[in-house]
Amino acid sequence: MILIAGYAGLAAGVILLFLAHVAPRFGAGNFIREIDQPTAFGRKISHREAHLIGILIHLLVSLFAGLVFAWLVDQRLVSGFHFLPVLGWSVILTFVFGLIIMPLEGHGIFGVKHDAWFPVDLFLTSILWGLIFFALMRVWGV
């Protein structure tokens, strides 16, 4: 069950990543502005390297979110793979991303350094991840 949830979390991340790369082609634009010179671990890197690192981190976080939720269910800390617990997990992820990950990446709390609507985008994206995760867990029989 934990591995299936990990796969579902990863697949939800892949679907969202695909949508993020397709949306600008349909006029949605790029929501995150490019920084002048990206760095990783104190070393200057190219924009392509920064993009690939971002993709990898996004997929690892999606995998980890699915695994942790399944572990919480396995430990009976969460009632199961029902709609409301998954929705609640998505809201928790929104706060983790907005209060910890986004500031560490230099986007500010909830990404407000970009614009005032970025927190809304973060919330909707996290909820969409939860809906996809929930649907995949249902399809895969958990």
Report on this structure.
This protein has 142 residues and is an all-alpha fold. 65% of the residues lie in helices and 3% in strands. It has four helices and two strands; from the N terminus they run αββααα. The protein has a two-stranded antiparallel ribbon. A hairpin with a 2-residue loop joins β1 and β2 (43-44). The longest helix is centred in the middle third of the chain and has 28 residues, at 47-74.
Topology of helices and strands:
Elements: H1 2-22, E1 39-40, E2 43-44, H2 47-74, H3 83-104, H4 118-139
Antiparallel strand pairs: 1-2
What structural category characterises the helix and strand content? mainly alpha
Average pLDDT value? 85
Low-confidence runs (pLDDT<50, min 5 residues)?
A: none
Query: What is the count of β-strands?
Result: 2
Largest sheet, in brief, is: 2 strands, antiparallel
Helix content: 55-70%
Give the oligomer, counting copies of the same chain as homo and different chains as hetero: single chain
- Element order, helices and strands? HEEHHH
Annotation field: number of helices:
4
